[in-house]
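Entry: J domain-containing protein
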Amino acid sequence: MKWYEANTIDELKSIGKLTDVKREINKDIKKVTGLKDLTGFIKMGSNSWKGQYNKIQNLKKMFNEFYGAEEGSQERFFKNEGCKYIFYLLELQGSSRMEKLKIYKAHYINKDLAKEWYKEIAKKIHPDVCKVDGAEEAMAELTSIYNKMVNNE
């Protein structure tokens, strides 16, 4: 389980020691932002599990507010996550597609982040696991986007 998937303090505790969780949070934030030092950018550490959990929940709320996401809104329209990604890849264009696919500038800077992003989506839409019309075409589009990310020198 990742720190951002924890829905309770106990789930957060199950990940490991508080210091390890704080380290993972900071590592992920650095990866997404491309920053090497988070001093003055954001402080996600806390001295207690409850405080750390509350900071994570506030960060989630901020992202949901910023991206206009409502909990459960996607599940009403798509049979599964693979279908959702196939729709985004084949039907959306430009900034709306980038927003839905969560493509950020950091993906073009950090090849490891781009690879992680690619693998996460590919395992949901690959034609070997997703038997939906358009899976092959969506996989080709995903690969094309990924290649642009990693070949952007």
